[in-house]
Write a structure and sequence with these properties.
alpha+beta, three-stranded antiparallel sheet, 14 helices
């Protein structure tokens, strides 16, 4: 199922073929002959030795005169599964129609697993760069990946707008040297605090003040993936995750013809493989809202939605409170409904696009030579950090677009134009899709039309004209979000502001977590607002799966626990940004609390068309 990246770049591979290849690499169980696992001297061999004393790596292995076979799994710090599907599969439970109509309704049963779902507790990932002291540092429950392309596109638009405002602020500072200037940062009706700057005339450099920045890292990059917001790109995360979980090493991570993990196999995942896998994940169908058939159920769901949004004025909610929707923003507008699957770049040369031409995919024979044993990644992590923000594709693209507007913006400032006019210049610049610095496969999230560059025509799913709909999209890509026009703005019911928030002592990690840039780490108490679409079918809840139901998940967010709950919930979680909202939840009557849960329970994961409850 391998396709070559240069063929995709030339427009020679239809999107359906790319998605089929990506589905293969998502669901296929990798084996040692594919490059799964590490060799005896791989980067994590010493950890396997510590965890599994009864192995050839251990001094105890030959105590009885025999040598047992090695244990290939690590389970802590990766090498913990054989496929993406093992963890991203669960799509919840349902009550069969005939049982739902009974009084009382019958029990729920597991629905048929599907590619892209969430994971149970047994699939938690354990991450610890400080092993063995402490033994475990970060625990992560794998979330569902439905609707990923919409999330990627939204985050990129927000990042572009924030970087545009930073460029505007830098201009203001340059034209008022040695004086502090500030600018409020906002995008898509979301506030990111204030950014300050001062142009130092001696060093001729702009110095930024990040003291009032909120919800985003200092590089102003919105990272919408993983619980802490550690990855800005689906592709970057996928390439790192395959190395971490399977020791299947992508060429773009470890280098061409290089056996970083010492297993005798090189070029384990090509540029084309990672691109296909990323395209597949990006186009998994978005979650849905399951509306009850009966009027009582519909009324309760509507009541819960109003409480969630803070509009149920008769529920005793604090005046002016947006309740859960203050962070879990119900809908965000995607200005351009296109996600770009960027091209993988050459190791140590982020300005060069990689190619699969002339390399064996994969090769065991070529991996046996000593010249292939170059340790380019000393310790694989959940997201492979780049040396600096300048390497991130979204930043490179945005800065290339901003550069085209810089002269006009500078002239506008010199002429005394209002800030709104200068800001508009930069906003238009970051939306310029025809200016490309990195490039990638552009995919219209509404129509599934695609093109490999702005100079190429859009092509349909099967390579023909974009309006050719003679064959339906694959089941895993159904259905697209409702839209008025194929290329117009799109309402995305993500239920997230994609911002970082301090979630207090109950949820805090014991250490920061690194991101896709080496100098950027997310503090222990900060977490990304998790998108709630699909939440009903993605239990257990929270970053480590500690909450087994939605009520527990809400309580762990913070607030002052009522005394009457001390036996049932013996935790004091106050100290979170969510405290006011959770206190308001505690103050709700029982029926209103259940209405809120009913609303959240309507946010379902989409089963495959025709799937049935197995029993």
């Amino acid at each position: 199922m391998t396709i070559q990246q240069q063929d995709v770049m030339s427009g020679g591979v239809p999107l359906r073929r790319i998605l089929e290849s990506g589905a293969h690499f998502f669901s296929y169980p990798y084996f040692p002959q594919d490059g799964w696992g590490e060799g005896a001297d791989g980067p994590r061999a010493w950890q396997r030795k510590a965890l599994y004393p009864n192995s050839p790596f251990s001094p105890y292995a030959t105590a009885d005169g025999g040598v047992p076979p090695p244990i290939p799994f690590l389970r802590l710090n990766g090498i913990d599964s054989q496929s993406c599907y093992e963890c991203h599969t669960s799509i919840g439970a349902t009550v069969q129609p005939d049982l739902a109509a009974a009084t009382p309704p019958g029990p729920a049963t597991r629905t048929q697993p599907a590619i892209g779902g969430a994971a149970g507790i047994g699939n938690n990932a354990f991450i610890n760069s400080q092993f063995p002291n402490p033994l475990t540092q970060l625990i992560r429950n794998p979330p569902h990946v439905f609707g990923t392309g919409y999330t990627q596109a939204l985050a990129n638009e927000i990042t572009g707008l924030l970087l545009g405002q930073q460029a505007h602020l830098a201009d203001l500072a340059r034209y008022t040297p040695d004086k502090a200037v500030t600018l409020p940062l906002s995008a898509k009706n979301l506030s990111f605090g204030w950014l300050g700057a001062r142009y130092d005339s001696k060093s001729q450099a702009v110095v930024y003040d990040y003291g009032r920045l909120t919800g985003v890292a200092q590089d102003l990059v919105v990272r919408p993936f993983q619980w802490k917001g550690i990855a800005s790109s689906v592709r970057h995360f996928a390439a790192a995750a395959t190395q971490f979980h399977f020791s299947m090493e992508a060429v773009e991570v470890v280098g061409e013809n290089n056996d970083n993990d010492g297993d005798g196999v090189i070029n384990e995942l090509s540029y084309g493989n990672i691109g296909a896998l990323t395209s597949f994940v990006a186009l998994t169908r978005p979650p849905v809202v399951e509306t009850p058939a009966d009027q009582t159920g519909k009324a309760r769901l509507a009541r819960g939605a109003a409480i969630f949004a803070g509009t149920a004025t008769d529920a005793g909610l604090p005046a002016g409170s947006a309740m859960c929707a203050s962070c879990h923003v119900p809908v965000q507008t995607l200005d351009r409904p296109v996600v770009t699957i960027e091209w993988g770049t050459v190791l140590d040369h982020p300005d060069r696009v990689g190619s699969d031409a002339g390399i064996a995919l994969p090769s065991r024979d070529a991996g046996r030579g000593a010249e292939a044993r170059r340790r380019t990644v000393a310790a694989p992590t959940l997201v492979n950090p780049l040396p600096g923000t300048d390497h991130l594709p979204v930043v490179r693209e945005t800065r290339a677009r901003l550069a085209k507007a810089a002269a006009g913006a500078g002239e506008a400032i010199r002429q005394g134009a209002p800030d709104t006019a200068v800001a508009a210049l930069y906003a238009r610049a970051v939306a310029d899709a025809d200016t490309v610095a990195v490039g990638g496969l552009e995919i219209n999230l509404n129509t599934l039309a695609s093109r490999a560059s702005p100079s190429m025509p859009w092509r349909g799913l099967d390579g023909g004209k974009p309006d050719d709909t003679t064959t339906p999209p694959p089941a895993y890509a159904r259905a697209r979000l409702p839209h008025d026009t194929p290329d117009g703005p799109l309402a995305v019911p993500l239920l997230s502001d994609l911002r970082l928030h301090d979630m207090g002592p109950c949820l805090a990690d014991i250490a920061p977590q690194g991101t896709d840039v080496a100098a950027i780490a997310v503090p222990p108490q900060q977490f990304l607002t998790r998108p709630l679409w699909g939440v009903a079918d993605s239990w257990p809840y929270l970053h480590d799966g500690r909450a087994l139901d939605l009520v527990q998940a809400i309580r762990f967010h913070g607030g002052t626990r009522p005394d009457g709950l001390a036996a049932e919930f013996p935790y004091q979680c106050a100290g979170s940004e969510a405290d006011p909202v959770i206190n308001a939840f505690y103050a709700l009557g029982h029926d209103d609390q259940q209405a809120l849960i009913a609303y959240l329970s309507s946010l379902r994961l989409p089963p495959l068309p025709g799937a049935v409850v197995p029993f």
